[in-house]
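Lecture notes, unit on protein representations.

Consider one protein chain, 306 amino acids long.
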Amino acid sequence: MSQIDGISIVLPCHNGGELLTDAVESIVQQPLSVPLEIIVIDDGSTDPDTLVAIDNLTDCAAVRVIRLPTNRGAQAARNAGLDAAHYEYILPLDCDDRLATDRQLLAGGGYLQSAVQILDSRPEVAFVHTYSRMFEGFDGLTISAYPCREQLLVRKHHAPLSIVYRRADALAAGGYDRRVRKWQDWAFAIDLLAARHRAGAANEIACVPGPFHEYRIHTRFPRLSTSQVDEQEMTRLSVEKNLDYFHAVLYDNRPAAGLAAFVCASKPDRMTDLLHMAATDLDQALAVARQRRASLASPTDVLGIP
């Protein structure tokens, strides 16, 4: 099928229950002047409430459901959605998250509309991102709510959660790497940038602040962010796969193991993240510091939030 200028939302779900419905409802409320499809990938769900929620979504004209016979994991589910997408632009969204629906925030056009317009008019942009606001268990911006740049990403800065990118770029990068069991957003962003670099394309990153992405803090089921995985090993997989790219961007010709250790050691602490935020918006950084009671310890350790 030929590509049509529109956007496909890839929404994997494994036993997400009623949270899936919340995610889909937030998508259909977005202002958008191009075609939209929501691809729900049922990743082997067994929970009755989830199965009912998925069945009920078939009444929504924008929704297509792809059912995987067994639970294959988020990366495989995302690849299934990527392969099935009809449109040129892709937004991945976790089933327990949602897009902002505040009317005042959406009055300027919203994230999806802005991202499509940017990618359509600026081929030098690799992807578009927005800020993330936490809700439910904690209310406030994530500490990585500042514009992302290629030079920050290769040094293991937190990759934006829900980026809008070109399907062709993702396919050229090989899709989502199933070996990566945590920090998957960072690994995918690196694969995307590396593939564009090899093709001779520029790698600018655009930001539509918002915050238009809403990250749910909950304990209904385990999130990947809470799983125990060796970060340096996951980093090594991405560095080894894209060693030419890291050599070119970092001007560092060390082998994969040495570069992976360097990249992990370059990951910012909370103070560095806060300083990056302050460089963009001092008032926002001060508000985030006050929300976290001025603690610069890792909020993952203290509050259980990113």
